[in-house]
Design a protein that fits this description.
With 217 residues, the chain is of the alpha+beta class. Helices cover 30% and strands 15% of the residues. The chain is built from 6 helices and 9 strands, in the order βαββββββααααββα. The protein has a 3-stranded mixed β-sheet with strand order 7-9-8. It has a two-stranded antiparallel ribbon with strand order 1-2. α2 packs across α5 and α3 runs antiparallel to α4. It starts with 9 loop residues before the first strand and ends with a helix.
Length: 217
């Protein structure tokens, strides 16, 4: 992007919206100064005040920049798919509380703590003449509770008591995606003919056809 005061940069509409845009037709893409490869929201208008670039046309203060999407594939993105992709690969949708899964993760964490406590003094349990190759089969061994410090068992009981006391219906869940965006995210995940990955430079998202990747490899 050029020095402040210059008009916003433009990129070909083909790379903005895929092959659905007529060839040769350019669409304005405002490149946000807050991050390379990101642009401000569609409803934001660039304003120049004494050489400083600001944004107006939307409420709630400055809008967060969106990841720029480069789509040379044959897939034409829907507005919902574009919206969810603009959130970036690091975006995590809000998920409802799954108490069963949470209990499983807590038990796995406690198991690791038990193993660390039980095998803390490895020198007394290993044969010094046996070389360690670093290769082991996955173990399901759990140290006996009678050989684990009482503090670990008390910690587990306290955590499980807190989890069992949670009422999922009383939790206020603030969803960060719309119903259309959730469906669009699932549709993109099930689309086996494309690959979505970060660009080598610039921080943009690139949508490629799987056959194209094989040809370029």
């Amino acid at each position: 992007m050029g020095p402040p005061g210059r008009p916003p940069a433009t990129i070909p509409g083909f790379f903005r919206n895929g092959p659905g845009t007529p060839e040769g037709q350019d669409q304005e893409a405002v490149i946000s100064p807050l991050g390379t490869g990101c642009r401000a929201g569609e409803d934001a208008d660039p304003q120049y005040d004494n050489g400083n670039l600001t944004w107006s046309g939307h409420s709630g203060g400055p809008k967060q920049p969106h990841c720029l999407i480069v789509n040379p594939s044959s897939l034409t993105l829907t507005p919902a798919q574009t919206s969810v992709l603009e959130k970036g690969l690091g975006f995590v949708p809000t998920a409802p509380l799954d108490k069963f899964k949470l209990c499983m993760e807590v038990n796995e964490c406690i198991r690791k703590i038990k193993l660390r406590s039980y095998f803390g003094d490895r020198s007394s349990r290993e044969d010094p003449n046996m070389g360690d190759t670093g290769l082991r089969n996955k173990s399901s061994f759990t140290a006996p509770s009678t050989l684990i410090p009482v503090e670990i068992l008390t910690f587990k009981q306290a955590v499980m008591k807190d989890i069992n006391g949670i009422d999922p219906t009383s939790l206020k869940v603030f969803h960060n995606t719309t119903r259309e965006e959730k469906k669009a995210l699932q549709d993109l995940a099930n689309h086996t003919s494309i690959v979505i990955k970060p660009a080598d430079k610039g921080g943009a998202l690139v949508i490629q056809t799987t056959t194209t990747i094989g040809m370029n490899a």
